[in-house]
Amino acid sequence: MPEAIAAMLTAAGLRVHDTSATGEPPTPYVITRLGVGTAGTHRLGIGPHWVRLDIDVLAVAKTVQGCRATATAIRAALAGKRPSPTASPLKELESGPVLTDGQTPADPRHSITIRYRTHVQIGAI
């Protein structure tokens, strides 16, 4: 599943890092963080089991405007799309405010986190 999400973002022209970025990559870029999911069954207890997956996608840029533009590109690449044939369409749950990393004042980085959710059949992840 992480590869499918990364491929969707890369196809939109975004540079993607899984879990974290090392060093100081050129901006803008995207960091994806995929949880392990929460298992469940059909509400009647029949049929295939599924996993609810939450995916955090961070848009990182040098400026607030660049950060917002990257977030817009992420939404265009992911919202309502299926990361695999056995997954439900990605649904945006929430997005956070623009945060500023003040560790390097001469080269600040701004980020926004957008959380998506999908449901995937167990064994198809």
Describe the 3D structure.
The protein is elongated and about 55 Å long. The protein contains two helices and seven strands. It has 125 residues and is an alpha+beta fold. The N and C termini lie close together (6 Å). Strands 1, 2, 3, 4, 5, 6 and 7 form a seven-stranded mixed beta sheet that branches. The mean pLDDT is 85.
Question: What keywords describe this structure?
Answer:
125 residues; seven-stranded mixed β-sheet; 2 helices
Characterize this entry briefly.
By secondary structure, the protein is of the alpha+beta class. It has helices at residues 2-11, 64-78; strands at residues 16-18, 29-34, 38-40, 50-61, 91-95, 99-101, 109-121. Strands 1, 2, 3, 4, 5, 6 and 7 form a 7-stranded mixed β-sheet that branches.
